[in-house]
């Protein structure tokens, strides 16, 4: 004899329920303030950023600012610096390619809206623009990515 504690529900309802529970697991509440969304986004981005592919990387700074700019600065052992920046109001899509353990969050903008600069580069400094920024990450499961995407969309709308 099989006894079920859960009522019989459909697969989609179960998935929706599990996603809702996982969102709660990441600290969301019904009405988060703009500052709470910003703090959570920074915590998620900094906790998930995976600089390991860059073995010569000395330090990095990844910040989502209160004026809605996503900024990444990488400093390498030889002194070279790379800087990426864009305003969330120019964001058109946030995607993820990878698994729960490693992957890349891809930020796409409307046009060449991502500032790309290098300093102290032996091959010459670069000052250009890009449409896509790939951020290597780890421990980015579906629920965490969906939560990050929701937070960025909320902040993008606020930036308009």
Task: Provide a descriptive summary of the structure in words.
- By secondary structure, this protein is an alpha+beta fold.
- It has a single domain, classed as Roll (PH-domain like).
- It has 3 helices and 8 strands; from the N terminus they run ααββββββββα.
- The strands form 2 sheets. It has a 5-stranded antiparallel β-sheet.
- Helix 2 (34-48) packs across helix 3 (142-159).
- The N and C termini lie far apart (59 Å).
- Residues 1-26 have low confidence and may be disordered.
Question: Could you give a short description of this structure?
Answer:
This protein is α+β, with helices and mostly antiparallel strands and 160 residues long. 30% of the residues lie in helices and 35% in strands.
Q: Provide the CATH topology.
A: PH-domain like
Strand line-up in the sheet with most strands: 1-2-3-6-7
Question: What distance lies between the first and last C-alpha atoms, to the nearest angstrom?
Answer: 59 Å
Mean pLDDT: 84
The helix-and-strand class reads: alpha+beta
Helix content: 25-40%
Largest sheet: 5 strands, antiparallel
Tally the helices: what do you get? Answer: 3
Large-scale geometry: globular
Kindly give the count of domains: 1
Strand segment tally: 8
> What's the CATH architecture name?
Roll
CATH class, anyone? Mainly Beta
Poorly predicted spans? 1-26
- Rounded to an integer in angstroms, the radius of gyration calculated over CA atoms is 19 Å
Beta fraction:
35-45%
Secondary-structure element order, as H and E? HHEEEEEEEEH
